[in-house]
Amino acid sequence: MAKKKDPLFLTRFKEIYPDLHENLITYRPNLKTSELTLCAYLYFGFTSKEIANYTFRSIKTIDNNRHNLRKKLDLTSEIDLCVWLKKMADRQDSD
Fold first, then answer.
1. Is the distance from CB of 43 to CB of 17 less than 8 angstroms?
2. Among the residues of 1-95, which ranges form H helices?
């Protein structure tokens, strides 16, 4: 679904990984659908190049989106975003 830019990708992701989605929304309620979708791609470990290919955007756009997402989540560049998302999926209590 992700590779085909299926419009139901995020919906299906939320069904399969409800804890991650809920924890992200609780942590930052102002996340946009596009940011949550980017989180889903990153959770699966896709590179910026792969995400750009699947979403028909430039790599630079995806890199900018990642940068803006990091700022919104208050993550420094030292923190691996994919690892952070995996930990966020396992959190029992959200900030």
1. yes
2. 9-16, 18-27, 33-43, 48-55, 59-73, 81-90
pLDDT score of 92 = 65
Q: What is the dihedral of CA 2, 88, 34, 47, to 10 degrees?
A: -50
Model pLDDT, residue 91: 79
Which residue in 55, 65, 42 sits closest to 1, CA to CA? Answer: 55
**Dihedral angle at the C-alpha atoms of 39, 41, 42, 46, nearest 10 degrees?**
-170
Cα separation, 89 vs 7, in Å, equals 22
Tokens of 92: 């029992």
User: What is the mean pLDDT of the segment spanning 70-77?
Assistant: 94
- Residue 93: its pLDDT value, please? 56
